Amino acid sequence: MAIGCKLCKRQLPDTSHDATCTCGWWLDGNCSENHREWCPHHGEDGWLGAVEI
């Protein structure tokens, strides 16, 4: 079953090659780096990620 990246919404058909964050989001490899600073679980600017959830 394909899922979508939480940031860019790109379909991730094979999640074994994509990043999952400790907050539980599946992310495209490129989006994973962008997500780190505002991750709602442990990011420096986590309040931004919390607003997105």
From TrEMBL:
Which species is the source of this protein?
Halorientalis persicus
Q: What phylogenetic lineage does the species belong to?
A: Archaea, Methanobacteriati, Methanobacteriota, Stenosarchaea group, Halobacteria
Name it: Uncharacterized protein
Top-level division of the source organism's lineage: Archaea
